[in-house]
Amino acid sequence: MSDKQQPTVTQATQVRNAAPKTAYKPADVSPQRRVQRRYTMRLWSVRHSRGLEWFYERFADVFLLLHPIWKAVGYSRAEAPVKFVEKRVKGLMFDCRMCGQCVLSSTGMSCPMNCPKQLRNGPCGGVRANGNCEVEPDMPCVWVKAWEGSRNMRNGDAILAVQKPVDQSLRETSAWLRVTARAAAEREKAKKGEPA
Amino acid sequence: MTPSPRPPQPDENPAGIDLPLDPLPGHSSRGRLERILRRGEFAVTTELNPPDSADPEDVYERAKVFDGWVDAINAVDASGANCHMSSVGICALLTRMGYAPVYQISCRDRNRIAIQGDVLGAAAMGVANMLCLTGDGVQAGDQPGAKPVFDLDCMSLLETVRTMRDEQKFLSGRKLTTPPAVFLGAAINPFAPPYEFRPHRLAKKIAAGAQFVQSQYCFDVPMFREYMRRVNDLGLTEQCYVLCGVGPLASAKTARWIRANVPGIHIPDAVIARLEGAADQKKEGKQIAIDIINEVKEIEGVSGIHVMAYRQEEFVAEIVHESGVLKGRRPWRREPRADDAMVAERLDHILHDSPTETPQAIVSQAAT
Questions:
Q1: What is the pLDDT of residues B53-73, one digit of tens each?
Q2: Using the beta-carbon criterion (under 8 Å), do B74 and A1 form an inter-chain contact?
Q3: Where is there biased composition of kind Pro residues (chain B) (predicted)?
Q4: CA B262, B88, B116: angle at the middle one, nearest 5?
Q5: Domain boundaries, chain A
Q6: Which of B139, B253, B310 is facing A29, going by the closest CB pair?
Q7: CATH number reported for the structural domain that contains residue B86 in this entry
């Protein structure tokens, strides 16, 4: 409820106007956006969220099957090459920011870390009437797209679950390996639990 | 002089206006706003324009215009990313005077360590209501070079404070000896896309801990009605009190400016046309606000209104009075206590009547 009536010339406008004018004018408003200017692939991924969901499920299974290999090689030694691939693939498809805690399956295959406020639980109140971001006027709101993407998905209602805050200490780590190691640990726990 | 007894006030601690109220069963806070909402009364809240000064009197003056008309006052946290007195500071001042502030916490400026500390500090100072917000981007404000933090978002912030209150622990799991007894609020904006998702987002906020919500400015009543219908269908109004945001527009020009420059506020053409057609636009803006209140108060599930009258704070009392939403109820107002009056009289005497009064003179005067 922070937005309200203001005089036509605000302090913010004055500050902007007082900034020294040079030939170099940076594009975009937020650093988030400057890292990845185009979003064609991102939008493609959202449109094909159903297919990607299907693929991701299989892919996670394959990774879990490879758990003995990861273990043999050592997760820490596997990290560098896996991260190399993960960063590039997800970077291309979703403009991934390597938060290390991937929630794409809960957000309609639209990466929430591309939101200038990095919201992980839904759109803020500032979404423009045309569905664009309040900070970046020419970028479609990540969460408007997330909602559209989630409607195509079989397990799309995962978007309604409350997400925990990002653990900043896990930045630039591999979410794939983390999920796999966790699933493997759970599987082993279940196996141990069964005979008992 | 015989001090006249102070008139009895609703929802006040008899031992002192700045003290928390008696805990009631089923209440999570010891504040006035929760009592009013749980009693089923139509609540009125408003927003205090934060001063750009270090003078407490500025806060008291700005709060005084709401006396007797509102149930709680929001202390905004650098709204629009413009720097002002901190909301925790305003809350501390307001609780001293017995007001019921709503402490707005935004995630833009502070990380989880600072926020959890402030929650404890504010609760210790008697703040009973907290409103969890994400906050505007720094780019919107007068200091666009600031680092945007956004460590938590409004949802995880709600969950964090709820965990502190109900499970008596920090996010890390470390125990609190005394949890903050707070009534948790959040903001909603039914007027921004994706419209389909908005009611579900409210459901998420409730799941995360929201007990009351205040909406963005409502100028489009049919749109709000449709939103409330879906919220009622989801059964959310039984778990959460919805306060509809309303406010006067100063002129058609301001309305156009807001529509073009402030994302998230939706003003239909009809409202602007009505403002333009009026002889006195300021008066018409107030009348529009009153008309909207009269419509929204009839909508099922609306428990109150949140009047935002930025730089037109003096209109709040008129809007509340003329819309008749209080139905004769008189919210708490600050009235001088008997001993306060005595101190004031004595001070007046010292300052104006006999500035050179010495202890000897007082003694000899008392002896005669």
A1: 999 999 999 999 999 999 999
A2: yes
A3: 1-11
A4: 100
A5: 33-193
A6: B139
A7: 3.20.20.220
